[in-house]
Amino acid sequence: MAHGSSATAQRCKPLMSALVRLHRSFILLLCKKPPRKEQKEKSWHNSRNDCTQSNADLAIVNSNEELTFLKTRTENADYFVGLTKTSGMWKWIDNTDLDQNIFSITNRDNDCAVVGLSTTGTVPCSVPTRWICEKNA
Prior knowledge:
This protein is an alpha+beta fold. Strands 1, 2, 3, 4, 5, 6, 7 and 8 form an 8-stranded mixed sheet that branches.
């Protein structure tokens, strides 16, 4: 395992029950509070790089059930997910369009989406934030 993967494993908490509750073949990882002097929050791009070092990517929210699951596990902090605004259009990292019936964004002033305890929203992509990775099981 590469050094980056080991570091990610130490600061990312797997949500194994996501496999059962969401009927998906992914493991979701909440990434925060790294050991010692490492950053616990990163920009959206650095968060995505951290995920890809572990053969994962930022989470894509495909259902209301998954969104509810994430909201109940994010404590009182925002977490980046794989949704950004490019040329005025909201797209997931797999290039699918945003479904407002699942992931509603009311504040569209910024370019990167976050999920928190009871909300979804946006922050500037450069603002250090926690992040959620997902990887194939």
